[in-house]
Amino acid sequence: MKELNIEATPENIDTVIAFVDEQLEEYGCGMKAQMAIDVAVDELFANIAHYAYSPETGYATVRVDVIKDPLSVEITFIDNGVPYDPLANIDPDTSLSVEDRPIGGMGIFIVKKSMDLVNYEYKDGKNILTIKKNI
Amino acid sequence: MNVNVQKEGTKLIISVEGKLGTTTAPALEKAVKENISGVTELVFDFCKLDYMASAGLRILLSSAKIMKKQGPMKIINVSAPVMEVFNLTGLADVMDIETA
Question: N or C: which end of chain A has fewer CB within 10 A?
Answer without folding.
Answer: N
